[in-house]
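Sanity check

After download, print the first record. It should look like this:
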Amino acid sequence: MTIAVINSGGANLGSVQHALHRLGVESVLTKDAEVIRSAEKVILPGVGAAAWAMNALREAGLVDVIRGLSQPVLGICLGLQLMFESSEEGAVDCLGLIPGRVRKLQVGDDLRLPHMGWNQLEWIADDPLAAGLDGSEWFYFVHGYAAPVDHAVAVSEHGQRFAAVVRHENFAACQFHPEKSAGAGARVLQNFLGC
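Expected structure tokens:
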């Protein structure tokens, strides 16, 4: 199986590849459009700001490549946010794969921002990524912006409900970091590999 991890410049690239390696799957870190198009599965990781990440994808000539993918694609953290139409973070147009706008999390004075820590998920729709998970698992989040729940198959909460896992056709994404979420995260990655 060929897994292409898009080299979006994020800090989590190595940990994503290492998590796949632990599952017995090798991946290629790439900005090469042909490698990405021909891969059986594609992962779009991301850490940082939406405007910076979109600029990096544009400079690499990958925006239309990603939009045209028909194989299973998994976005991680910022990768989820980039799948939406736009983001308040930098007032940037994103990939437009999923309708909606990513907005800053609204939290009270008792909660810190960015949201950094472990949360549980509430699965609100059946999805292949949820196989073997029952909602009792904990996942690691690091984010200050979040996607609306309209296309969520799982939600979480930090001051407000937000999309924790989304799906639209062959594109799925998780706001948390499965590569840093121990056994539960490994299960999500394994489920993606089996899609």
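If your output differs, re-run the checksum step. Summary of this record's structure: The helical segments are 13-22, 33-38, 50-59, 63-67, 78-82, 182-193.
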